[in-house]
Amino acid sequence: MSLQLVLIAAAALFCVGLYGALSQQVVVMVMMGLELMLNAVILAVTAFWWFLAPAPDGQVLLLVVIAAMTVEMAMGFAVATLLHRSRGSDMTDMATDLSG
Amino acid sequence: MLAVIVFCALAVVAIASGVAVFRVDSMARATYALAISFVAVGAMLLMFDLDYIGVITILMMVMEMAIMAIYMIMFMGMNPALMPMSMVHNNRWALILSAGTFVLLAAGVLLVPWPAPAESPTGDLTASLGETIMGSKMLVMLTVSPILFATIIAALVLANPRGRYDRWGDDLKRRSPHDLRRGGLGG
């Protein structure tokens, strides 16, 4: 197993998530895209830690990324609930109030 | 060699399931596909001897997918396992941008002269993580903790229908007004 192999897999996973985050209309589906991207970041950080800097600090960075995933998930579900309550929909196109 | 084959198989499963999330006909199937992708990534982490982080990733993601399935059933107002759906916007540009990003990242990965691999971590990695969190990196966890607590409060404030504020004035025992739009200050 090499660093390049793991990073290519992480890049592919990240780009699949990017496609989902950019193209989907439903808030929950956008969250799925974001989580795929964060999962790719976890994989890439693991590769850098294992192959280049095998100190425990890399594991702490992984925990921070996982915490970011939980924050994203909790706030995303809360926003989806709020959108559904106030507008009866959970589509991103219905929440363009700040688009200018 | 066997490790490389297993890793490649898991990577293919993770990426193919990730693609399936946005290709399948129903949101329930999309949720299952994402769960499979996350479990595959968790298994990859286990291959790097990250027992603790790999297991919490798998557990957290499986629970999250269960919650996501409930949300879809609650909000979509249809049988989420059967109803075909295609709710995308700007599909072509999203495809071009993500493919371009992959080419850019892959070129960077292959062209950058990476330093020689260091010696693989040895010993009890979970114990070393615990000692680091409780030692030199305690400030990181001290920062993450209030952020998670603030997230709990913010999520509750956003998701709560604000029922306790639907009343006349600031007396908690006064009756609620019959507003057409709840959540205001009355009147």
Automatic annotation (TrEMBL), chain A:
Pfam families: Oxidored_q2 (PF00420). GO terms for biological process: ATP synthesis coupled electron transport. It comes from the Bacteria. The keyword Transferase does not apply. GO terms for cellular component: plasma membrane. GO terms for molecular function: NADH dehydrogenase (quinone) (non-electrogenic) activity; quinone binding. NDH-1 is composed of 14 different subunits. Subunits NuoA, H, J, K, L, M, N constitute the membrane sector of the complex. HAMAP family: NDH1_NuoK (MF_01456). This is NADH-quinone oxidoreductase subunit K. It comes from Cryobacterium tepidiphilum.
UniProtKB/TrEMBL annotation, chain B:
It holds the Pfam family Oxidored_q3. The keyword rRNA processing does not apply. It is an enzyme of class 7 (translocase). Belongs to the complex I subunit 6 family. GO terms for molecular function: NADH dehydrogenase (ubiquinone) activity; quinone binding. Its EC number is 7.1.1.-. GO terms for cellular component: plasma membrane. InterPro entries: NADH_UbQ/plastoQ_OxRdtase_su6 (IPR001457), Nuo/plastoQ_OxRdtase_6_NuoJ (IPR042106). Keywords: Cell membrane, Membrane, NAD, Quinone, Transmembrane, Transmembrane helix. The chain crosses the membrane at residues 28-48, 55-73, 93-117, 138-159. This is NADH-quinone oxidoreductase subunit J. It is found in: Cell membrane. It is a multi-pass membrane protein. It catalyses: a quinone + NADH + 5 H(+)(in) = a quinol + NAD(+) + 4 H(+)(out). NDH-1 shuttles electrons from NADH, via FMN and iron-sulfur (Fe-S) centers, to quinones in the respiratory chain. Couples the redox reaction to proton translocation (for every two electrons transferred, four hydrogen ions are translocated across the cytoplasmic membrane), and thus conserves the redox energy in a proton gradient.
